Amino acid sequence: MMPITGLQRLRALDLLKTRGMLRLKDFDAEGIGPETLARLVREKSVLRPARGLYQLAAASVDAAHTLAEAAALVPSGVVCLTSALQYHELTLQMPSAVWMAIERAAWRPRIDSPQIRFVRFSGPALTEGIMRYRIEGIEVPITEPARTIVDCFRYRAKVGLDVALEGLREGLRRRRCTPDDLWNYARKTRAWAVMRPYVEAMVTDAA
Question: pTM, whole model, 2 decimals?
Answer without folding.
Answer: 0.74
